[in-house]
Amino acid sequence: MKHLNNFSKKSYLLVPILVLAFWFGSIHEVWSQNTPSKETQNFTEFKGKILDAQTKKVLVFATITIKGTNASTVSNAQGDFILKVPNSLLKNAVEVSFLGYETLTKQLDLRTSNDFNLALEPVAFALNEVDLVIPKDARTLVEETLARKGENYFNSPTLMTAFYRETIKKRRKNVSLSEAVVSIYKSPYISNRKDDVALYKARKSTDYTKLDTLALKLQGGPFNTLYVDVMKYPEYLFSDAYMDLYKFSYGTATRVNDQLVYIVNFEPRSYEAEPLFKGQLFIDVERKILTKAIFSLDLSNPKEAARLFVKKKPKNANVWPTEVAYRVDYREKDNKWYYGYSNLELSFKIDWNDKLFNSVYTLNCEMAITDWENTDRDQMPRRKDLLRTSMILTDEAVGFSDPDFWGNYNIIEPEKSIENAIKKIRKQLSKAKEKGVVNP
After folding, report:
1. If 0-12 CB within 10 Å is exposed, 13-18 middle and 19+ buried, where does residue 192 land?
2. If you average pLDDT over residues 134-146, what whole number do you get?
Protein backbone atom coordinates (compact mmCIF):
# COMPACT_ATOMS: atom_id res chain seq x y z
CA MET A 1 0.00 0.00 0.00
CA LYS A 2 1.30 3.43 -0.82
CA HIS A 3 1.61 5.91 1.97
CA LEU A 4 -0.38 9.11 1.80
CA ASN A 5 2.75 11.15 1.08
CA ASN A 6 3.03 9.37 -2.26
CA PHE A 7 -0.36 10.81 -3.17
CA SER A 8 0.30 14.42 -2.24
CA LYS A 9 -1.15 15.64 -5.53
CA LYS A 10 -4.06 13.22 -5.58
CA SER A 11 -6.91 12.45 -3.21
CA TYR A 12 -7.13 8.75 -3.83
CA LEU A 13 -8.14 6.37 -1.16
CA LEU A 14 -4.97 4.49 -0.17
CA VAL A 15 -4.92 1.77 -2.78
CA PRO A 16 -3.20 -1.58 -2.23
CA ILE A 17 0.00 -2.39 -4.07
CA LEU A 18 0.50 -5.77 -5.63
CA VAL A 19 3.99 -7.12 -5.36
CA LEU A 20 4.51 -9.64 -8.17
CA ALA A 21 7.83 -11.44 -8.28
CA PHE A 22 9.15 -14.77 -9.52
CA TRP A 23 9.00 -17.48 -6.87
CA PHE A 24 12.03 -19.75 -6.57
CA GLY A 25 11.24 -21.30 -3.20
CA SER A 26 10.11 -24.86 -2.49
CA ILE A 27 7.12 -26.10 -0.61
CA HIS A 28 8.81 -25.75 2.79
CA GLU A 29 8.43 -21.97 2.47
CA VAL A 30 4.77 -22.21 3.43
CA TRP A 31 5.23 -24.45 6.48
CA SER A 32 6.00 -23.21 9.96
CA GLN A 33 7.46 -25.11 12.88
CA ASN A 34 6.12 -22.50 15.28
CA THR A 35 2.71 -23.46 16.61
CA PRO A 36 0.71 -21.04 18.81
CA SER A 37 -0.16 -22.44 22.20
CA LYS A 38 -3.69 -23.68 22.71
CA GLU A 39 -6.03 -21.51 24.74
CA THR A 40 -8.52 -22.75 27.30
CA GLN A 41 -11.92 -23.11 25.68
CA ASN A 42 -14.39 -21.16 27.79
CA PHE A 43 -16.89 -20.38 25.04
CA THR A 44 -19.58 -22.06 22.97
CA GLU A 45 -19.75 -21.80 19.19
CA PHE A 46 -23.07 -20.96 17.56
CA LYS A 47 -23.19 -21.73 13.85
CA GLY A 48 -25.94 -20.82 11.42
CA LYS A 49 -27.12 -18.92 8.40
CA ILE A 50 -28.77 -15.50 8.03
CA LEU A 51 -31.78 -15.56 5.71
CA ASP A 52 -34.56 -13.41 4.30
CA ALA A 53 -37.64 -14.67 6.15
CA GLN A 54 -39.82 -14.45 3.03
CA THR A 55 -37.58 -15.48 0.13
CA LYS A 56 -35.09 -17.61 2.11
CA LYS A 57 -32.32 -15.80 0.25
CA VAL A 58 -29.06 -15.60 2.22
CA LEU A 59 -28.07 -12.20 3.61
CA VAL A 60 -24.41 -11.36 3.10
CA PHE A 61 -22.43 -9.28 5.64
CA ALA A 62 -25.24 -9.18 8.21
CA THR A 63 -24.04 -8.18 11.70
CA ILE A 64 -24.57 -10.62 14.61
CA THR A 65 -23.95 -9.18 18.09
CA ILE A 66 -24.20 -10.62 21.60
CA LYS A 67 -26.76 -8.31 23.17
CA GLY A 68 -25.42 -6.12 25.95
CA THR A 69 -21.83 -6.51 24.75
CA ASN A 70 -19.58 -5.24 21.96
CA ALA A 71 -18.77 -8.77 20.74
CA SER A 72 -19.93 -9.47 17.21
CA THR A 73 -19.24 -11.05 13.85
CA VAL A 74 -20.61 -10.89 10.29
CA SER A 75 -22.10 -13.44 7.92
CA ASN A 76 -19.94 -14.46 4.97
CA ALA A 77 -20.66 -14.44 1.23
CA GLN A 78 -22.81 -17.56 1.67
CA GLY A 79 -24.78 -16.16 4.61
CA ASP A 80 -23.01 -18.44 7.13
CA PHE A 81 -21.64 -17.28 10.46
CA ILE A 82 -19.86 -18.53 13.57
CA LEU A 83 -20.29 -16.67 16.84
CA LYS A 84 -18.14 -17.61 19.83
CA VAL A 85 -20.12 -16.83 22.97
CA PRO A 86 -18.36 -16.82 26.37
CA ASN A 87 -20.05 -19.39 28.59
CA SER A 88 -20.78 -16.63 31.09
CA LEU A 89 -23.04 -14.97 28.48
CA LEU A 90 -25.07 -17.98 27.35
CA LYS A 91 -28.20 -16.49 28.95
CA ASN A 92 -27.94 -13.47 26.66
CA ALA A 93 -29.70 -12.94 23.37
CA VAL A 94 -28.18 -12.06 19.98
CA GLU A 95 -29.15 -9.15 17.76
CA VAL A 96 -28.98 -9.43 13.99
CA SER A 97 -29.08 -6.33 11.80
CA PHE A 98 -29.05 -5.85 8.04
CA LEU A 99 -29.86 -2.83 5.90
CA GLY A 100 -33.50 -2.85 4.81
CA TYR A 101 -34.57 -5.46 7.39
CA GLU A 102 -36.06 -5.39 10.87
CA THR A 103 -33.43 -5.98 13.56
CA LEU A 104 -33.95 -9.45 15.03
CA THR A 105 -33.40 -10.37 18.69
CA LYS A 106 -33.23 -14.06 19.58
CA GLN A 107 -32.34 -15.88 22.78
CA LEU A 108 -29.32 -18.19 22.61
CA ASP A 109 -30.26 -21.87 22.76
CA LEU A 110 -27.59 -24.53 23.32
CA ARG A 111 -29.83 -27.17 21.73
CA THR A 112 -29.53 -25.45 18.36
CA SER A 113 -25.95 -24.17 18.61
CA ASN A 114 -24.90 -26.05 15.46
CA ASP A 115 -27.97 -25.01 13.49
CA PHE A 116 -28.67 -21.51 14.77
CA ASN A 117 -30.35 -20.12 11.64
CA LEU A 118 -31.82 -16.63 11.83
CA ALA A 119 -34.46 -15.16 9.49
CA LEU A 120 -35.00 -11.40 9.10
CA GLU A 121 -38.17 -9.67 7.95
CA PRO A 122 -37.86 -6.97 5.24
CA VAL A 123 -38.85 -3.44 6.21
CA ALA A 124 -42.06 -2.22 4.60
CA PHE A 125 -42.85 1.49 4.32
CA ALA A 126 -44.33 4.01 1.94
CA LEU A 127 -42.31 6.99 0.72
CA ASN A 128 -45.35 9.25 0.87
CA GLU A 129 -45.27 9.00 4.67
CA VAL A 130 -41.92 10.80 4.77
CA ASP A 131 -42.17 14.40 5.97
CA LEU A 132 -38.50 15.09 6.64
CA VAL A 133 -36.76 18.11 5.17
CA ILE A 134 -34.34 16.56 2.69
CA PRO A 135 -31.81 18.74 0.86
CA LYS A 136 -32.78 19.04 -2.79
CA ASP A 137 -29.13 18.73 -3.73
CA ALA A 138 -27.71 15.27 -2.92
CA ARG A 139 -24.21 16.72 -2.66
CA THR A 140 -25.39 18.98 0.18
CA LEU A 141 -26.58 15.93 2.11
CA VAL A 142 -23.17 14.27 1.65
CA GLU A 143 -21.32 17.39 2.82
CA GLU A 144 -23.58 17.81 5.86
CA THR A 145 -23.05 14.14 6.75
CA LEU A 146 -19.26 14.42 6.56
CA ALA A 147 -19.34 17.62 8.62
CA ARG A 148 -21.24 15.93 11.49
CA LYS A 149 -18.86 13.02 12.09
CA GLY A 150 -17.82 14.57 15.41
CA GLU A 151 -21.42 14.42 16.65
CA ASN A 152 -22.47 11.02 15.36
CA TYR A 153 -19.35 8.83 15.58
CA PHE A 154 -16.98 7.76 18.36
CA ASN A 155 -15.31 10.82 19.87
CA SER A 156 -12.91 9.07 22.26
CA PRO A 157 -9.92 6.74 21.72
CA THR A 158 -11.10 3.17 21.23
CA LEU A 159 -9.26 -0.15 21.31
CA MET A 160 -10.80 -2.52 18.79
CA THR A 161 -10.21 -6.21 18.23
CA ALA A 162 -10.61 -7.19 14.59
CA PHE A 163 -10.41 -10.24 12.38
CA TYR A 164 -8.70 -9.75 9.01
CA ARG A 165 -8.54 -12.13 6.02
CA GLU A 166 -6.81 -12.05 2.63
CA THR A 167 -7.51 -14.55 -0.14
CA ILE A 168 -6.08 -15.01 -3.63
CA LYS A 169 -7.91 -16.89 -6.35
CA LYS A 170 -6.56 -17.99 -9.71
CA ARG A 171 -9.72 -17.79 -11.78
CA ARG A 172 -12.12 -19.72 -9.52
CA LYS A 173 -9.59 -21.69 -7.49
CA ASN A 174 -8.36 -20.54 -4.08
CA VAL A 175 -4.58 -20.62 -3.94
CA SER A 176 -3.74 -18.52 -0.90
CA LEU A 177 -5.34 -17.62 2.41
CA SER A 178 -3.93 -15.42 5.18
CA GLU A 179 -5.75 -14.49 8.39
CA ALA A 180 -4.97 -12.36 11.42
CA VAL A 181 -6.36 -11.09 14.69
CA VAL A 182 -5.28 -7.47 15.10
CA SER A 183 -5.67 -4.71 17.65
CA ILE A 184 -6.76 -1.34 16.24
CA TYR A 185 -6.05 1.80 18.21
CA LYS A 186 -8.83 3.91 16.77
CA SER A 187 -8.48 7.67 17.09
CA PRO A 188 -11.59 9.82 17.61
CA TYR A 189 -13.38 10.62 14.37
CA ILE A 190 -12.76 14.31 14.88
CA SER A 191 -9.01 13.74 15.27
CA ASN A 192 -6.58 14.04 12.37
CA ARG A 193 -4.40 11.35 13.91
CA LYS A 194 -4.34 8.13 11.93
CA ASP A 195 -5.36 4.81 13.44
CA ASP A 196 -2.65 2.38 14.55
CA VAL A 197 -2.65 -1.40 14.21
CA ALA A 198 -0.81 -4.12 16.15
CA LEU A 199 -0.66 -7.77 15.11
CA TYR A 200 -1.78 -10.32 17.68
CA LYS A 201 -1.90 -13.57 15.68
CA ALA A 202 -1.60 -14.50 12.03
CA ARG A 203 -1.58 -17.65 9.92
CA LYS A 204 -1.44 -18.54 6.23
CA SER A 205 -1.83 -21.38 3.76
CA THR A 206 -0.55 -20.98 0.21
CA ASP A 207 -0.28 -23.37 -2.72
CA TYR A 208 2.46 -21.80 -4.81
CA THR A 209 2.19 -24.58 -7.41
CA LYS A 210 -0.90 -22.81 -8.76
CA LEU A 211 0.62 -19.34 -8.98
CA ASP A 212 2.43 -19.55 -12.36
CA THR A 213 5.82 -19.37 -10.56
CA LEU A 214 4.68 -15.98 -9.22
CA ALA A 215 4.60 -14.91 -5.61
CA LEU A 216 1.68 -12.47 -5.34
CA LYS A 217 1.73 -10.34 -2.25
CA LEU A 218 -0.61 -7.61 -1.08
CA GLN A 219 1.16 -4.74 0.61
CA GLY A 220 -0.60 -2.96 3.46
CA GLY A 221 -2.48 -5.83 5.06
CA PRO A 222 -5.24 -4.57 7.42
CA PHE A 223 -4.65 -0.95 6.36
CA ASN A 224 -6.22 -1.78 2.99
CA THR A 225 -9.53 -2.27 4.77
CA LEU A 226 -9.09 0.18 7.64
CA TYR A 227 -8.64 3.17 5.33
CA VAL A 228 -11.94 2.40 3.61
CA ASP A 229 -13.53 4.04 6.66
CA VAL A 230 -14.94 6.99 4.71
CA MET A 231 -16.01 8.94 7.79
CA LYS A 232 -12.57 8.75 9.37
CA TYR A 233 -10.67 9.28 6.10
CA PRO A 234 -12.96 11.32 3.81
CA GLU A 235 -9.92 12.88 2.13
CA TYR A 236 -9.20 9.63 0.31
CA LEU A 237 -12.56 9.74 -1.46
CA PHE A 238 -14.17 13.18 -1.11
CA SER A 239 -11.49 15.78 -0.50
CA ASP A 240 -12.55 19.39 -1.02
CA ALA A 241 -10.49 19.51 -4.21
CA TYR A 242 -12.25 16.49 -5.68
CA MET A 243 -15.89 17.10 -4.70
CA ASP A 244 -16.45 19.18 -7.83
CA LEU A 245 -15.32 16.26 -9.99
CA TYR A 246 -18.31 14.15 -8.88
CA LYS A 247 -22.01 14.40 -9.57
CA PHE A 248 -24.43 13.25 -6.88
CA SER A 249 -28.04 12.06 -7.19
CA TYR A 250 -30.70 10.46 -5.03
CA GLY A 251 -31.59 6.80 -5.46
CA THR A 252 -34.11 4.69 -3.57
CA ALA A 253 -34.77 4.65 0.18
CA THR A 254 -35.13 2.09 2.95
CA ARG A 255 -35.23 2.00 6.75
CA VAL A 256 -32.75 0.94 9.43
CA ASN A 257 -34.15 0.62 12.96
CA ASP A 258 -37.07 2.90 12.02
CA GLN A 259 -34.72 5.53 10.58
CA LEU A 260 -35.10 6.61 6.97
CA VAL A 261 -31.98 5.86 4.91
CA TYR A 262 -31.50 7.36 1.46
CA ILE A 263 -29.14 6.01 -1.16
CA VAL A 264 -26.99 8.71 -2.74
CA ASN A 265 -25.36 7.74 -6.03
CA PHE A 266 -22.09 9.38 -7.07
CA GLU A 267 -19.94 9.11 -10.18
CA PRO A 268 -17.24 11.13 -11.98
CA ARG A 269 -18.45 14.01 -14.13
CA SER A 270 -15.89 12.99 -16.74
CA TYR A 271 -14.20 9.67 -17.44
CA GLU A 272 -11.36 11.14 -19.47
CA ALA A 273 -9.09 12.25 -16.64
CA GLU A 274 -7.39 10.27 -13.87
CA PRO A 275 -9.30 7.38 -12.24
CA LEU A 276 -11.99 8.38 -9.73
CA PHE A 277 -14.69 6.46 -7.90
CA LYS A 278 -18.36 5.71 -8.41
CA GLY A 279 -20.80 4.11 -6.03
CA GLN A 280 -23.51 4.49 -3.42
CA LEU A 281 -23.71 6.11 0.02
CA PHE A 282 -26.42 4.98 2.46
CA ILE A 283 -27.26 8.01 4.60
CA ASP A 284 -29.63 8.36 7.55
CA VAL A 285 -31.35 11.54 6.34
CA GLU A 286 -32.68 12.88 9.65
CA ARG A 287 -29.49 12.43 11.68
CA LYS A 288 -27.01 12.86 8.79
CA ILE A 289 -25.22 9.53 9.39
CA LEU A 290 -23.40 7.38 6.84
CA THR A 291 -24.41 3.78 7.59
CA LYS A 292 -22.78 2.08 4.60
CA ALA A 293 -20.82 2.86 1.43
CA ILE A 294 -20.21 0.72 -1.66
CA PHE A 295 -17.98 2.04 -4.41
CA SER A 296 -15.48 1.07 -7.09
CA LEU A 297 -12.63 2.64 -9.03
CA ASP A 298 -13.25 3.75 -12.60
CA LEU A 299 -10.92 1.73 -14.83
CA SER A 300 -11.45 3.60 -18.10
CA ASN A 301 -7.74 4.44 -18.09
CA PRO A 302 -6.13 1.01 -17.56
CA LYS A 303 -2.53 2.25 -17.77
CA GLU A 304 -3.08 4.81 -15.01
CA ALA A 305 -4.91 2.24 -12.88
CA ALA A 306 -2.10 -0.29 -13.37
CA ARG A 307 0.46 2.32 -12.33
CA LEU A 308 -1.45 2.85 -9.07
CA PHE A 309 -1.65 -0.81 -8.14
CA VAL A 310 1.37 -2.71 -9.37
CA LYS A 311 4.69 -2.09 -7.64
CA LYS A 312 6.74 -4.84 -9.26
CA LYS A 313 6.01 -7.26 -12.08
CA PRO A 314 7.81 -9.71 -14.40
CA LYS A 315 9.47 -8.09 -17.41
CA ASN A 316 7.68 -10.42 -19.80
CA ALA A 317 4.15 -9.53 -18.67
CA ASN A 318 1.65 -6.69 -18.49
CA VAL A 319 -0.71 -6.42 -15.52
CA TRP A 320 -4.14 -4.76 -15.75
CA PRO A 321 -6.72 -4.38 -12.96
CA THR A 322 -10.19 -5.35 -14.16
CA GLU A 323 -12.15 -4.58 -10.97
CA VAL A 324 -11.43 -2.58 -7.82
CA ALA A 325 -14.41 -2.59 -5.44
CA TYR A 326 -14.79 -1.36 -1.85
CA ARG A 327 -17.39 -1.66 0.89
CA VAL A 328 -17.67 -0.31 4.44
CA ASP A 329 -20.41 -0.89 7.02
CA TYR A 330 -20.96 1.04 10.24
CA ARG A 331 -22.57 -0.08 13.49
CA GLU A 332 -24.35 1.78 16.29
CA LYS A 333 -23.83 1.58 20.03
CA ASP A 334 -25.38 3.98 22.56
CA ASN A 335 -26.36 6.43 19.78
CA LYS A 336 -22.79 6.57 18.47
CA TRP A 337 -21.62 4.98 15.22
CA TYR A 338 -18.32 3.31 14.48
CA TYR A 339 -16.50 1.38 11.77
CA GLY A 340 -17.66 -2.25 11.81
CA TYR A 341 -16.73 -4.06 8.61
CA SER A 342 -15.07 -3.40 5.25
CA ASN A 343 -13.72 -5.29 2.28
CA LEU A 344 -11.78 -4.78 -0.91
CA GLU A 345 -11.94 -6.94 -4.04
CA LEU A 346 -9.24 -6.53 -6.65
CA SER A 347 -9.29 -8.50 -9.90
CA PHE A 348 -6.52 -8.25 -12.44
CA LYS A 349 -5.22 -9.92 -15.57
CA ILE A 350 -1.64 -10.83 -16.45
CA ASP A 351 -0.86 -10.86 -20.17
CA TRP A 352 2.27 -12.89 -20.80
CA ASN A 353 4.43 -12.05 -23.81
CA ASP A 354 5.47 -15.68 -24.32
CA LYS A 355 2.20 -17.44 -23.46
CA LEU A 356 -0.95 -18.00 -25.48
CA PHE A 357 -3.30 -17.62 -22.51
CA ASN A 358 -3.41 -14.95 -19.83
CA SER A 359 -3.71 -15.40 -16.07
CA VAL A 360 -6.64 -14.00 -14.09
CA TYR A 361 -6.40 -13.42 -10.35
CA THR A 362 -8.74 -12.04 -7.71
CA LEU A 363 -7.55 -10.74 -4.36
CA ASN A 364 -10.04 -10.14 -1.60
CA CYS A 365 -9.37 -8.72 1.84
CA GLU A 366 -11.93 -8.09 4.57
CA MET A 367 -11.89 -7.00 8.18
CA ALA A 368 -14.58 -7.11 10.87
CA ILE A 369 -14.55 -5.52 14.32
CA THR A 370 -15.34 -8.31 16.79
CA ASP A 371 -15.02 -6.35 20.05
CA TRP A 372 -14.08 -2.90 21.32
CA GLU A 373 -13.61 -0.83 24.47
CA ASN A 374 -12.75 2.75 25.32
CA THR A 375 -9.06 3.22 25.97
CA ASP A 376 -6.35 5.78 26.62
CA ARG A 377 -3.66 6.68 24.11
CA ASP A 378 -1.15 6.20 26.94
CA GLN A 379 -1.97 2.49 26.87
CA MET A 380 -0.76 2.12 23.30
CA PRO A 381 2.16 -0.23 22.61
CA ARG A 382 5.51 1.15 21.60
CA ARG A 383 5.79 2.49 18.06
CA LYS A 384 8.18 -0.31 17.07
CA ASP A 385 5.49 -2.88 17.97
CA LEU A 386 2.91 -1.33 15.63
CA LEU A 387 2.45 -2.44 12.04
CA ARG A 388 3.67 -0.27 9.19
CA THR A 389 1.42 0.58 6.27
CA SER A 390 3.99 -1.13 4.04
CA MET A 391 3.67 -4.49 5.82
CA ILE A 392 2.89 -7.71 3.91
CA LEU A 393 0.79 -10.14 5.94
CA THR A 394 2.02 -13.27 4.16
CA ASP A 395 5.53 -12.42 5.36
CA GLU A 396 4.32 -12.13 8.97
CA ALA A 397 2.02 -15.15 9.18
CA VAL A 398 2.78 -18.76 10.13
CA GLY A 399 1.16 -22.03 9.01
CA PHE A 400 -2.28 -23.53 9.57
CA SER A 401 -1.00 -26.31 11.82
CA ASP A 402 -2.96 -25.53 15.01
CA PRO A 403 -6.74 -26.16 14.94
CA ASP A 404 -7.20 -24.10 18.13
CA PHE A 405 -5.21 -21.17 16.79
CA TRP A 406 -7.89 -18.52 17.35
CA GLY A 407 -8.97 -19.50 20.84
CA ASN A 408 -11.82 -17.30 22.07
CA TYR A 409 -11.67 -14.83 19.17
CA ASN A 410 -14.54 -14.45 16.73
CA ILE A 411 -13.73 -14.84 13.05
CA ILE A 412 -15.63 -14.56 9.79
CA GLU A 413 -16.80 -18.02 8.77
CA PRO A 414 -14.80 -18.96 5.65
CA GLU A 415 -16.58 -19.79 2.43
CA LYS A 416 -16.89 -23.48 1.65
CA SER A 417 -14.52 -23.12 -1.31
CA ILE A 418 -11.88 -21.62 0.99
CA GLU A 419 -12.36 -24.43 3.52
CA ASN A 420 -11.83 -26.99 0.76
CA ALA A 421 -8.71 -25.17 -0.44
CA ILE A 422 -7.25 -25.22 3.08
CA LYS A 423 -7.91 -28.95 3.40
CA LYS A 424 -6.23 -29.66 0.07
CA ILE A 425 -3.18 -27.57 0.90
CA ARG A 426 -2.92 -29.18 4.33
CA LYS A 427 -3.02 -32.59 2.68
CA GLN A 428 -0.37 -31.56 0.17
CA LEU A 429 1.90 -30.24 2.92
CA SER A 430 1.35 -33.38 4.98
CA LYS A 431 2.45 -35.58 2.07
CA ALA A 432 5.47 -33.36 1.45
CA LYS A 433 6.42 -33.64 5.12
CA GLU A 434 6.22 -37.44 5.02
CA LYS A 435 8.55 -37.44 2.00
CA GLY A 436 11.02 -35.24 3.80
CA VAL A 437 10.45 -32.09 1.75
CA VAL A 438 9.36 -30.23 4.86
CA ASN A 439 11.54 -30.28 7.94
CA PRO A 440 9.62 -31.49 11.01
Report:
1. exposed
2. 90
